[in-house]
Amino acid sequence: MALIEVSKLQKSYGAIRAVQSVSFSVDRGEVVGFLGPNGAGKSTTMKLLTGYLRPDAGTAVVAGFDVVENPVAAKAHLGYSPEGAPAYGEMTVREFLRFAAELRGLTDPAQRVADTLKLCRLEEVAGQAVDTLSKGYRMRVGFAQAVIHDPAVLILDEPTDGLDPNQKFEVRRILKDMAARKAVIVSTHILEEIDELCTRVIVIAQGEVRCDESKERFLQRGDDLNQVFRKLTA
Amino acid sequence: MSDTPASPTPRAGAAFWAVLRREFAGYFRTPLAYVFLAVFNAFAISLAFFVGNIYEAGVASLDRFFLYHPWLWAFLAPAAGARLWAEERRQGTLELLLTWPVTVWQAALGKFFAAWLFLGCALLITLPMAFTVCYLGDPDVGVIVSGYVGSFLCAGACLGIAAIASALTRSQVIAFVTGFLACFVLVLVGYGVFDELLSGAFASGTVDEIRRLGLWRNLEPFTLGLIDLRPTAYFLTVAFAGLGLSTLIVERR
Prior knowledge:
The complex is a heterodimer of chains A (about 230) and B (about 250). Chain A is of the alpha/beta class. In chain A, about 35% of the residues lie in helices and about 25% in strands. Chain A has a domain at about 5-75 and about 150-235: Rossmann fold (3-Layer(aba) Sandwich). Chain A has helices at about 40-50, 70-75, 95-105, 110-120, 135-145, 165-180, 190-195, 215-220, 225-234, and strands spanning about 5-15, 15-25, 30-35, 55-60, 65, 80, 155, 185, 200-205, 210-215. In chain A, the strands form 2 sheets. A 6-stranded mixed β-sheet of chain A has the order 6-7-8-3-9-10, sandwiched between helices. A 4-stranded antiparallel β-sheet of chain A has the order 2-1-4-5. Chain B has about 250 residues and is an all-alpha fold. Chain B has one domain (about 10-250). The interface between A and B is large, with 39 and 33 residues.
């Protein structure tokens, strides 16, 4: 069974149908690039998959646990960084990660925090309040809380948004290192990221899956990815 | 890290305690907590001395000190409770917290008890007041203790109301103002001026029933040394109804 199974998910906000009948599955070792214009339903799909929002219909199963029926077990196997990587700004990086580790009931939280600080190269700012960090560090803090428990499923909403090229490279490097053991979904606006990071591409527009295929096939659709993107999402 | 991702399903208690510890420590992370404690202490004591004339009364008792506590809690419980959910919404951390393996109820209980504990700290700081009375006279210690118990329960009731206000908005200011107004009404109920207003509109039996809903009406027995079931149930009902309703509001998001 795949680590992520999404079946006919639907969600409306009032009269607006944000997600309509989205289905896909993601196996271990896959890094799925989530593409789509703003407001296409990418973030909503992620919020449904992580159990933050309740679907109107359909199911989402993470590591064998239905996120509606068995939310706590599903969330224990899930790492999620929402858009903009929110964090408790008044806490230091170390305190914040420690809180995440304790809330997750991890054994030896101090060691987990130390490992994660190292993995995400956050050691030098560990004692600083999250609010005082630059955007690059903040994004990495968001990433760090998502991987602190070494989850089977990792869902990242625009993890490289607003980063400079070096910082982007850094986030992709960490992600690539751990991708083989996980099922990963990454939403992005940066089409070049597909080639560097992903093994598969799912394009969402107007709340529907417009294309779901391997990276290689997607790249064969044309030389100009921007044009491919426009055509698929029109 | 290990090769097979090990993600234990945490014990329910772990999440509750983690949230409680974080929230409680959170009050002391900003200077606001110390301002809060100082203001509470200053007002509690000066109201008792300058408005309640506790010293001139010449009786070794704290009932004039507790008399003003509903006013204090009506103002300060919403101040402390405003951040409960509003701050999570504003920072976007609600999405983080609720996608961690914790139920809304565990998080809500952790937050609520942390805030209540913080209000309890404010109350504890006024203990020198009790020691002074004990030093100057020979008060009934049991009465003082029951007064403190009543005041703490009253704080919980105001916090319950503040929690609802905080769950409804992402602005701490709006949460504070609406929470304060709601508590303010509960303080007024049972005061003479308000009674006159009510008796114009309702039969006297109804007025009496409404008066029972006031904060002071329920705190008064405690300041006389009585820990009665009815006022205790009143405070706890308001506190936990507020907690429950605010949690349902957050759950519906």
